[in-house]
Automatic annotation (TrEMBL), chain A:
MF terms in GO: peptide transmembrane transporter activity
UniProt entry tagged with the keyword Transcription: no
Compartments in which it is found: Cell envelope
S-adenosyl-L-methionine found in the keyword field: no
Lineage top rank: taxon: Bacteria
Swiss-Prot/TrEMBL GO biological process terms: peptide transport
Protein name, entry field: Peptide ABC transporter substrate-binding protein
Signal peptide (UniProt feature, chain positions): 1-36
GO CC term, one of those recorded: outer membrane-bounded periplasmic space
TrEMBL record, chain B:
UniProt GO cellular component terms: plasma membrane
One Pfam family named in its UniProt record: BPD_transp_1_N
Sequence similarity: Belongs to the binding-protein-dependent transport system permease family.
Signal peptide segment: none
Compartmental location: Cell membrane
Entry protein name: Peptide ABC transporter permease
Membrane topology, record value: Multi-pass membrane protein
Transmembrane segments: 12-30, 96-118, 130-150, 170-190, 228-254, 274-300
GO BP: transmembrane transport
Keywords: Cell membrane, Membrane, Transmembrane, Transmembrane helix, Transport
UniProtKB/TrEMBL annotation, chain C:
Chain ranges passing through the membrane: 69-89, 168-192, 213-236, 256-274, 286-310, 335-356
Location of the protein in the cell: Cell membrane
Superkingdom of this protein's organism: Bacteria
Record carries keyword GTP-binding: no
Gene3D superfamilies named in the record: MetI-like (1.10.3720.10)
InterPro entries to which the protein is assigned, alphabetical: BP-dependent_transpt_permease, MetI-like, MetI-like_sf, OppC_N
Family note: Belongs to the binding-protein-dependent transport system permease family. OppBC subfamily.
Native source species: Faecalibacterium prausnitzii
GO CC terms in record: plasma membrane
Topological relation to the membrane, as annotated: Multi-pass membrane protein
Gene Ontology process terms (BP): peptide transport; protein transport; transmembrane transport
Name the UniProt record assigns to this protein: Peptide ABC transporter permease
Keyword Magnesium on entry: no
């Protein structure tokens, strides 16, 4: 219900220059167009110099976990950090990386050296933003003493030279492949070419930290307006750790200050969605998140919108640990018995869209520029709701296993949406498959994740957000031995394809690789290794007085730099 | 009496230490870990455990914690508010819980006592029935429903009070939460006062007092209430601690930055230091109040010999 | 009047025995047969039966003379009957979903003709208030949900009574176990005092000093969630209040003459605690039991709120309220039935408790 929707937005999108946000919005229901439209008009109006000010009142679901860019891991913290800090690159309205502190950049021919040329920008204490600030920030991220949870952004995903060794404690932090050539030139060395590297730069783990200032704060860094420095559109005016209300104001020293229309941002943490909507109705809030039940109340309201959250929710059967679930026909029976339209349309109602692929749509774009999973009917024959097929497979499974009835336990997060989904899933399976019983075990999310990782479950309801803009961020999960292959499923053909696409010949053959990935995806769905359910969206209210707020399904969820508010 | 007081204080300290140990053991039993996410690799988790010393044996962790605690260091939060000292979290949040809880206790105790006394004096009349109904509603409607109804009516419809807690208007924005919080206390106190008062009013010494010509408020307050107070205090004391340490539900609905909602989040996200720190504060307050209550017994009712040990 | 007669009767019998003994005492030498059993079991049993019957009969009379107590009892009986038979009164099951019939407002055959409970609801939306009737819109005119249906299209009538059943079982079981444990603990601690009291109270402080939520949550996380675990969790944490009451009462009574008298006559400690003191404090104990019933229901409701209550799709009154809470501003009719049933249940337990308390209090009887 209203608990711990502390969404850890570990997932982030490295959508190299792709208009993914617009796609995400379209998928999240018809009403989303209003935001896309207003965001476009907002950008236009502010560019035309007709900006309107005011303070935006924003509802948050959870408190900020940390304002230290290298320590923070959740979406709320990232959003606030990005309000007052600019990285080398920034997210534009479509989620593409555009230059920010870096005015220009060069990429070497082998794609392994990036040179960023920094613009004249200032920290709020008057110091210039220099290349050394980035070096210090990045070194903090990989320093084992800091144990930054997102250090893998530099090592596994960013492939920065020596990052992995430094994290493992094998080399000193100074060996990291990033150097300040001079005050305004930053050079980054990569192990291998990383096509989405630029889009990593708007991710807060890569943000600069002023070393001299940091040393004056040390342990208190990021705990109050006096212990953070701003180089972004806003600056912190009132904050304390775990505050439920805090404010930012426009930063007059921001290099792009002329384009920032708002006077400030006022955040308010409200964990009860009904209170939040009432506050919104009284005008105390300009933006608020809704609960699926409240959609009935607002669905005719033009201010209602649905925003992609970037997660695929799916069910993972423990194939290795439960003998019955090793039976493919039983698994197929289950996936065919799931009516995903009913789950999203009748119960969630927040705009979440049914998903019939193992890789959700809207983040991975192929060589031809099209979305990897745009065609949701491609594998529908393997999983789309079909009661007759389900019963057919169920009968086969029954005779193969010599059993007439099955009882399984499904572990579910103690949050509102998963519990709702689980109850419908239970009902659908038990209605369609005679003699099938699904019991639900509701646990706090941390415990549920651990149970899945330990193999201590029969069936699990879980989710996954993309790490980078390639289908591999999903398909890589089901290779033999991967820690997120909860069901311990193993298939030699599948492993071979994935291997070929990661390190084999297909690496250099984008079209061939793409086709091979579809083959791999088909194996996952055909053998019902997972039962995909839906792509998550959040229902939000955005006041009609507000335009130009950029919503992104991942990384920085909301960006206010271009926003305006009319009185 | 002095000896007894000293002894009680010393044992209270030992009790606190025992509680701390139990809390530590409980944390070990807790399933899950503070660093748990789909994307965290085992290596990274090990690094985080090492960073916070969670890889050490429990007795080392315990003694280190006690040592640090004596220096006023309660450790840092692991994931609710990363690396923030627990003492800082408590400093900023506990006063708010105490303030809202204090308002609720005062309101609940006063209204409850008045209702209870009235009901007892006018037993089996309309007054009694009304008091009963009010107190029954108080104990039977869950506080979150009550809070939301209050908020909807007085915050949203009539706009008399703010719907959300605000640091700028602490008193005004505490009115609705305090009322919602006080309902249960008020009802409990009212019922208990009524039941105790009736017993006292029916007792022989009240008859005696009456026959000596004492009447009116003196009779009720000096003779009746004084005797009814002992069990009432017994009931009230733990309620005070409960309210002062914040309520998850009411804090959540009115967006109050108190410690109640923090504890629940901490338990769910295995933020050990926050759970231990907040629980310990709770325990200390609880034991402190129990100590006061025990000592008060002797003052209110001299018949109770506290130093029973040397009887 | 009746009481006086009995007491007089008792006194005169005693007098008669005393004088008879006096008469015999003067010059009697004991013989073997003097110590033979008298074989008057019949008379003895008649005596105890007489006494017992009298006390309970009077208690019963007093109880039934109190209208509010009777009303409470009737309510409890009605709710219990509905909890037993209610879920079977229509064709729905407590977990059966029909997503095509979700969020239907209450509609009762017969009453609907008067314009109420006819399945229409007034919904306040952000764009204004609108009146809808899902039965007509979805063309389900032959369908009736007496209390409406929830967001999964489950019948709220069935779920309310199913929830009442679960809540009653949990609350009564927890309250009785609490009473047994807490009462014994408090009485023993209070009676013996001194070192025993000191140790027992410190143990209690440790047990109670840890926030309830921490213990209960942990227990529910470690054990298999379900009704028995919840009862166990409530039992572990709720006995403390009872023991405090029992101890406080014991402290009030232990120095009184009747205890002293009993002890002088050679009664053992446990006899005094459970036979002499206990009957005198049954009033506060019952009041406290009646308090632990709502507390138990509440704690369960709170656990549901935290997501650790009775596992879905099973329900208790508490879990229903916390589940339907989300529809409070959207479809308020959904949350009303469980709240009303819960309040009525509380009210009736309180009324019965009051009645019982006054009926059973031996001090009141003797006056």
């Amino acid at each position: 219900m209203r608990f711990d929707r502390r969404i850890s937005r570990r997932s982030f999108l490295a959508a190299a220059g792709v208009a993914s946000a617009a796609l995400a919005l379209t998928a999240c229901g018809g009403s989303s167009s209003s935001v896309a439209a207003s965001s476009a008009s907002g950008t236009a109006s502010s560019a035309a110099g007709t900006a309107q000010g005011g303070t935006l009142n924003i509802m948050l679901e959870t408190e900020v976990q940390s304002l230290d860019p290298q320590i923070a891991t959740d979406g709320t913290s990232f959003e606030v950090i990005a309000d007052y800090t600019d990285g080398l690159m920034q997210m534009d309205a479509d989620g593409a990386a555009v230059p920010a502190i870096a005015e220009t950049y060069d990429i070497s021919e082998d794609g392994k050296t990036y040179t960023f040329h920094l613009r004249e920008a200032k920290w709020s204490n008057g110091d210039a933003v220099t290349a050394a600030d980035f070096v210090f920030g990045w070194q903090r991220a990989v320093d084992p003493a800091n144990a930054s949870e997102y250090s893998y952004m530099l090592s596994d995903i960013g492939q920065v030279v020596n990052a992995a060794e430094i994290i493992a404690g094998e080399k000193p932090v100074t060996d990291l492949g990033v150097t300040a050539v001079d005050d305004k030139t930053l050079e980054v060395q990569l192990n291998v070419p990383v096509s989405y590297f630029l889009s990593l730069m708007y991710f807060p783990t890569f943000y600069p930290v002023n070393e001299a200032f940091f040393n004056t704060c040390k342990d208190t860094f990021g705990t109050s307006p006096d212990t953070v420095l701003s180089n972004g559109a806003f600056k912190l005016t009132d904050y304390q750790p775990a505050a439920t209300a805090f404010t930012l104001e426009k930063n007059p020293d921001y290099y792009d200050a002329a384009k920032v229309a708002l006077d400030g941002l006022a955040y308010q943490v409200i964990k009860d969605s009904q209170q939040a909507l009432m506050s919104y109705q009284t005008g105390a809030l300009d933006m608020t998140l809704l609960n699926g039940e409240q959609v009935d109340q607002v669905k005719d309201d033009p201010e209602f919108t649905s925003v992609g959250a970037g997660y695929l929710w799916y069910i993972s059967p423990n194939i290795d640990g439960v003998p019955e679930l090793a039976n493919e026909n039983l698994r197929k029976a289950i996936t065919f018995a799931l009516d995903r339209d009913a789950i999203t349309g009748d119960v969630l109602k927040d705009g979440s869209a049914p998903c019939y692929t193992a890789v959700p749509p809207q983040f991975a774009t192929g060589p031809d520029g099209s979305d990897f999973s745009a065609d949701q009917t491609k594998f529908a024959e393997f999983c789309a709701y079909d009661a007759d097929k389900a019963k057919e497979y169920y009968e086969q499974a029954k005779s193969e296993l010599g059993k007439d009835s099955f009882t399984f336990n499904m572990v579910v997060d103690a949050d509102d949406a998963p519990q709702k989904v689980a109850q419908v899933v239970k009902e659908q399976l038990e209605t369609t498959l005679a003699g099938f019983t699904l019991n639900l075990t509701v646990e706090p999310k941390k415990q549920r994740v651990q149970d899945l990782q330990d193999g201590n479950f029969e069936i699990g309801l879980t989710r996954w957000g993309p790490d980078y803009a390639d289908p591999m961020t999903y398909l890589g999960m089901w290779v033999t031995g991967n820690s997120n292959n909860y069901g311990l499923w193993s298939d030699a053909d599948y492993d071979a394809i994935i291997d070929e696409c990661t390190t084999g010949d297909l690496c250099t053959d984008p079209e061939g690789r793409w086709a091979a990935l579809y083959e791999a995806e088909q194996i996952v769905l055909e053998q019902a290794v997972i039962f995909p359910l839906y792509g998550q969206c959040n229902a939000e209210m955005v006041s009609s007085a507000v335009t130009g707020v950029d919503f992104h399904p991942v990384a920085l969820n909301r960006v206010y730099k271009n926003a305006t508010k009319s009185e | 009496m002095k000896k007894y007081t000293l002894k009680r204080i010393l044992t209270s300290l030992f009790t606190l230490l025992a509680i701390l140990l139990v809390l530590f053991i409980l944390m070990q039993l807790m399933p899950g870990s503070p660093f748990n996410d789909e994307k965290l690799t085992p290596d990274m988790r090990a690094a985080l455990y090492a960073k916070y010393g969670l890889d050490q044996p429990i007795y080392i962790q315990f003694f280190r914690y006690v040592g640090n605690m004596l220096r006023g260091d309660l450790g840092v939060s692991y994931n609710i508010s990363k690396n923030t000292p627990i003492s800082q979290l408590i400093q900023s949040r506990l006063p708010i819980s105490i303030q809202v809880g204090g308002m609720a206790v005062t309101l609940g105790a006063i209204v409850g006592l008045v209702l209870g006394i009235l009901a007892a004096l006018k037993r089996d009349t309309v007054v009694d029935t009304i008091a009963t109904i009010i107190s029954v509603i108080g104990v039977s409607v869950p506080s979150y429903v009550f809070a939301l109804a209050l908020s909807y009516t007085f915050g949203f419809k009539f706009r008399w009070f703010p719907m959300l807690f605000s640091a700028k208007d602490i008193f005004g924005s505490s009115v609705l939460p305090s009322i919602s919080l006080s309902m249960f206390t008020m009802a409990s106190i009212a019922r208990f006062t009524r039941s105790e008062m009736i017993e006292v009013l029916d007792s022989d010494y009240m008859l005696l007092a009456e026959s000596k010509g004492i009447s009116g408020p003196a009779l009720i307050f000096r003779h009746a209430l004084r005797n009814a107070l002992i069990p009432i205090i017994t009931v009230l004391a733990p309620l005070i601690v409960d309210l002062m340490t914040g309520s998850l539900v009411v804090e959540k609905i009115f967006a109050i930055p108190g410690v109640g909602s923090l504890l629940v989040t901490a338990i769910q996200s295995n933020d050990y230091n926050v759970v231990i720190g907040l629980s310990f504060i709770y325990s200390a307050m609880y034991i402190g109040i129990m100590l006061v209550v025990d000592l008060l017994y002797g003052i209110i009712d001299p018949r109770i010999r506290l130093a029973k040990g040397d009887d | 009047m009746a009481e006086k007669a009995i007491r007089l009767g008792g006194e005169s019998t005693a007098d008669a025995i005393v004088s008879a003994v006096d008469a015999m005492y003067t010059e009697h030498t004991f013989a073997e047969k003097d110590f033979a059993l008298k074989h008057n079991e019949d008379e003895i049993s008649v005596d105890t039966n007489f006494a017992a019957q009298n006390f309970w009969k009077e208690a019963l009379i007093r109880f039934f003379n109190k209208k509010s107590a009777v009303l409470g009892l009737v309510l409890i009986v009605v709710i219990v009957l509905l909890a037993v038979f209610g879920p079977g009164m229509n064709s729905y099951t407590y977990s059966g979903q029909d997503l095509s019939q979700k969020n239907f407002a209450p509609r009762v055959p017969g009453i609907e003709q008067f314009g109420i409970l006819d399945g229409s609801e007034k919904m306040s939306t952000t764009t204004g208030t609108k009146v809808t009737n899902a039965y007509q819109e979805k063309d389900k005119l032959d369908v009736y949900y007496w209390f409406g249906s929830d967001l999964y299209g489950r019948d709220i009538w069935t779920r309310t009574w199913e929830g009442a059943r679960v809540s009653l079982i949990i609350a009564v079981a927890a309250a009785i176990i609490d009473m047994l444990i807490g009462m014994s603990y408090g009485l023993i601690s209070g009676y013996f005092g001194g070192r025993v009291d000191m140790v027992m109270q410190r143990f209690l402080e440790v047990a109670n000093g840890i926030p309830r939520l921490v213990i209960v949550t942990l227990l529910l996380l470690v054990l298999q969630p379900g009704m028995v675990t919840i009862i166990f969790a409530l039992m572990l944490t709720e006995w403390v209040g009872m023991s405090r009451i029992a101890r406080a009462e014991m402290l009030k009574l232990k120095d009184q003459e009747f205890v002293l008298a009993s002890r002088t006559l050679g009664a053992g400690s446990f006899f005094i605690i459970f036979k002499e003191v206990l009957p005198n404090i049954i009033g506060p104990i019952i009041t406290q039991v009646m308090f632990s019933i709502p507390t138990a229901i509440f704690t369960e409701a709170f656990l549901s709120f935290v997501g650790l209550g009775i596992p879905v799709p099973q329900c208790s009154l508490g879990s229903l309220i916390s589940e339907l809470y989300n529809s409070f501003t959207t479809h308020p009719y959904q949350i009303i039935p469980p709240i009303v049933v819960m309040s009525l249940l509380m009210l009736s337990f309180n009324l019965v408790a009051d009645g019982l308390r006054e009926a059973l209090d031996p001090k009141m009887k003797s006056m």
